[in-house]
Amino acid sequence: MKKSRKVIIGAIIIILVIASGVFFGRNYIREMVNYIKGKIEKSDETENEIPVFAVNIIPAASGQIQDYIALSGDIYAGSTVDVYSDAAGKVAEVYAVLGRRINRGDYVAAVDPSRPGMSFRNSYVTAPISGTLIAVPATVGMTINQAVPLARISGDGGLEIRLNIAERFISKMALNLPCEVTLDAWPGDIFHGSISEISPTVDMASRTMEVRVNVANTNSKLKPGMFAKVKIITEQKENTVKIPAASVIRRYGEEYVYVVEKDPEDPEFNIVVKRTIVQGIIIDGIAEVLSGLNPDEEVVTRGQNLLDEGSRVNIIERAAPLGSN
After folding, report:
1. Over the stretch 50-85, which tens digit does the pLDDT of each residue have?
2. Sequence-ordered alpha helix ranges (H) in the chain
3. Which of 5, 71, 161, 217 is most buried, most CB within 10 Å of its CB?
4. Handedness of CA 27, 28, 30, 34 (dihedral sign)
5. Does residue 208 fall inside a structural domain?
6. Distance between CA atoms of 257 and 106, rounded to whole angstroms?
7. How far apart (Å, rounded) are the C-alpha atoms in residues 192 and 185?
8. If you ran DSSP here, which 8-state letter would residue 78 be given?
9. Domain span at residue 23?
10. Could you tell me if 216 and 243 lie in one domain?
11. CA–CA separation, 191 vs 178, rounded Å?
């Protein structure tokens, strides 16, 4: 259709040129005919050129992928013990210093149990466990009885983070699931822990379940009361093929990617081949590929929506495989 239209237009132009040639001579007619013929031939060549699309690619990587639940909570002392006096009276001395470590049997305070008209020796209060003093409410001169705590000791059993899990995630919870902990106080540091306790009941008001995570206090950087961000690793897969999730095209219920290969008819050019894939989990913009793609195959990550099977492409940027940084 296009060719016949060009022939008609060319014929009209030639007739006009011949008509004007009456005034300008045969040489003018010959030159104009050759010029128009050349233009038509050049236009035909341009139409026959194969379009080339600019794309970015990345090699499919093989490695680890994790599914996780991101939560946040407060850090608590793993075990705490309140220290009480065996005798009622006035606090005569306080030996405990807030924040310092104390050993079992060390003096915490001295209590004078004397009463009007009766004098007694001081009763010494000792630490029942070893640990760190996280609260010392006792002060010299205050009157106490056996129900008033003089100090609180955080034991050496480590720290724990208390989290509230939404009801929809309860089926994924299990004891000893690994966790990664980060804090704004220590940017860049990752602390490791695991689930140690799971509540047997769900709060009816919030529809959440409490989970406790033991965390290793590396170099004593963590303190009770800190705010922590926790990733509970619910699923971890090794040696799986993974690609950027944005490279996957979804049309008419089908999921596929374009892979770059050499053009078998002209190896100087690259073409794309459509690969139908089956996806697994998608985490942080990374998709797991269960089938349909092999490691190191070069997948189009940008410009793929303009492509068809066999389209020629020009690689603008080749990104490093996922996880290679």
Report:
1. 788 999 999 999 988 989 999 999 998 877 889 999
2. 2-24, 26-47
3. 161
4. positive
5. yes
6. 69
7. 16
8. S
9. 2-47
10. no
11. 11
